[in-house]
Input
Amino acid sequence: MAINVVGAGLAGSEAAWQIARRGHPVKLWEMRPVKQTPAHETDRFAELVCSNSFGSDAEATAPGLLKQEIRRLGSIVLETAYEARVPAGCALAVDRHIFAQRITEKISQHPLITIVREECKSIPEGITVIATGPLTSDSLTTVLRRMTKSENLHFYDAAAPIVDGSTVDETAGFWGARYDRGDPDYFNCPLNKEEYEAFWEALVNAELAPINEEIEGDLSVFEGCMPIEVLAKRGKDALRYGPFRPVGLKDAEGKRPYAVLQLRKENTQATLFNLVGCQTRLKWGEQKRVFRMIPALRDAEFVRYGVMHRNTFVNSPKVLHPTFQMRDYANVFLAGQLTGVEGYMESTASGLLAGINAWRLTNGLKPLVLPEDTVLGALAKYICTADPKGFQPMNANFGVLPPLPERIRDKQARKAAYVERSLKSLENYLSQVGED
Output
């Protein structure tokens, strides 16, 4: 009997691949294009919505370590991300169209994966991985709400605008990376004090787009994807200490600007740029008016405006085991942002582990609980053991790992020790459980 995977985003695509590569048939459900979401634009698998960046690729960082772990476990998403990579300094960013197209081709062409293009409105029979992501349909949300005995299954996040690179005024900015680390892959749009304060004033007073939800007055916004206008309202300098911080950047004259908006390449041709940190809920006309106050963007053409949309996740400390199995439904696994992991790679990693464990359960093997001194193991443990009161998503960071046995004062040496311990622990564990 085929294992069901519901949702062909990052987590679902990864889960389906892990099951199929182990020789078991998969039925992969994806409702697009029969039923679209407010944020997606295509019917491709693993379509990236909010950003084209998978975070830091540096080895001595928690996101970089997570990538090393899932590379060791054979991640198809990570492999394809490197194939579709675009320059972004130390970050792993991709051409989102090439990336989604290649994932779709690989998944669709696998002989053991059957694609079902329709909305899944209930939990299928048999072992199932639910990876419907932040935009789970209303029908399935209702089912999950009943299964989890929870009324709190959503928060909101936002996506940043994208502009046509040919319409950016390169004479009003400069290419560079913070502290000159790595290649100068970001285009920096500087603002002096007068320009910044005028931009800030316009931003905090701009008109917001309405949200078609009855509970609009009680929005819960995850800090890691906060709309820029919400952050700006915390104080005039909030952006200068956040996404517009000029620290580590110098213009052509060797001077640090008062504030800087960074643009990140969206595709390999560098014809599209993402406004880094500018996820927003402003009305589209307001986005054009406000962001064009930045000198380098005065004539910018917007190819995609920022949007705000509902994200769905469960209260994992009450619902999940660190195997990503539901506590009350042993044949059902959850994966991706639905579980409360935050970030593209984190979602991918949870789908990978859920897929492996669905296959192991089907074949009478004990599901994996990865060591807590690995990033993936620590994330799985965190979302299942955190305080359920006010539970919020978590991304990859060294803070979720257990302390090192000896205190290391040097920051880089400490990070290197975390990496060495994690990779060694993962290798030993996989050899013990027969996942070599």
Q: What stands out?
A: The longest strand covers residues 259-265.
